[in-house]
Amino acid sequence: MVAVARVIRDLQRGEVATYGQVAARAGLPGAARAVGNVLANSVGLPWWRIVRATGELAVHKDGEQRRRLRREGVRFDGDRVFLARRP
DNA sequence: TATCTGACGATAG
DNA sequence: CCTATCGCCAGAT
Predict the structure, then answer these.
(1) For the segment A15-67, what is each residue's pLDDT rounded down to a tens digit?
(2) Which residues is A56 bridged to in the sheet?
(3) Model's pTM, two decimal places?
(4) What is the DSSP string of A16-85?
């Protein structure tokens, strides 16, 4: 989906978004899962800037993802990315 | 056109 | 906090 790729492409350095947020911003609310598929079948997108709703990193790429995010100055709370959401 | 898939999410226990 | 379930949807087969 072009819309999803565009949203991801527009993420700035050090910026992080959840799969659900990307889907919503792409006009596909509830398609978080589809966003994952797009990333899995695309190249050249800043995939490391997409994390789970809980702040946890992507299942298969947590190691690489963590390094890349930290390199961009993203703050971590243990194994999760700092997200405003935190009841 | 019909199925299958999974880099997800929300909820219940 | 953790596991089990069910719902969801675009893209790949």
Answers:
(1) 999 999 999 999 999 999 999 999 999 999 999 999 999 999 988 877 899 99
(2) A80
(3) 0.93
(4) -EEHHHHHHHTT-TT-HHHHHHHHHT-SSS-GGGEE-TTSBPPSS-HHHHHHHHHHTT--EETTEE--S-
Nucleotides of C under 7 A from a protein CB: 7-12
Four-residue CA torsion sign, A72, A58, A16, A80: negative
Residues with Cβ within 8 Å of A55's Cβ and at least 6 positions away in sequence, in order, are A77, A80, A81, A82, A83, A85
The reply to whether the CB atom of residue A6 sits less than 7 A from any atom in nucleic acid chain C is no
